[in-house]
Amino acid sequence: xxxLFQLLxxxxxxFSTLNSYAAAFSWQKVSFITQSFHEVALGxxxxxxxxxxxxxxKPINIFVQHDIGDSHLQNQLVDAHIQHLSSITxxxxxxxxxxxQANLKFFFTDQKNLLPLITKxxxxxxxxxxxxxxxxxNISLNQKxxxxxxxxxxxxxxxxxxxxxxxxxxxxxxxxxxxxxxxEKVYPxxxxxxxxxxxxxxxxxxxxxxxxxxxxxxxxxKNSLSKVLVSVINQLNHSGLISTANRRVKQTKLxxxxxx
Length: 260
Known about the structure:
Layout: H1 2-25, H2 30-41, E1 60-66, H3 71-89, E2 93-95, E3 104-109, H4 111-122, H5 124-129, E4 136-141, E5 147-155, H6 156-162, H7 165-175, H8 202-211, H9 222-226, H10 229-238, H11 245-249, H12 253-257
Parallel strand pairs: 1-2, 1-3, 3-5
Antiparallel strand pairs: 4-5
Helix pairs in contact: 2-8, 3-7
């Protein structure tokens, strides 16, 4: 009886391990990646609409303003993540020394100064929409749906209380690339508010790679996107970039900094 019981426990353990392993890699199906890309690239945080593909086509010049908190730590986290994003997108992403040089303004502030800061740099309409969010990002587009500028606001005191400082930095810097929508259908991902992931997952990296494929153009609608999306995913699959994505993201500087 004892042997049978031990065998039963072992079987349950193996089954659980296999299930966990399968769940970790189930996102790699072409159909799931296709659905996930539609969810985060063709939607909006603030409502439904007929959205187009949005992406940067020029270098990103980022100015970071530190009003509160540990500026050295904040800089380390930002620098590690923009280095990772640059390697995925092949965009030039660099820090600049003055706000006038920037097309991406990043503010580490506190709650009491949040709304005045948003109003000044993004406008009153954005300030009204974002009053309850832990971290906030806004992008501005030209007529071709190319991103021309963006702003990120993190109320550090509020983010610390929520345990979300790192998650805010990672998510907002990633979303301003042109993946602005959160969705519970996308998992495992920083774009899923129900997920426990604070750092990029293999799925997240794959979605960014798709967006910055030369075949994916700013301004594409759902119909025009459908003509090229599967071929882009298949190309990534054949090159091995999807099957190795989980391992690759865990080798980045931000994962190492946080002890993963």
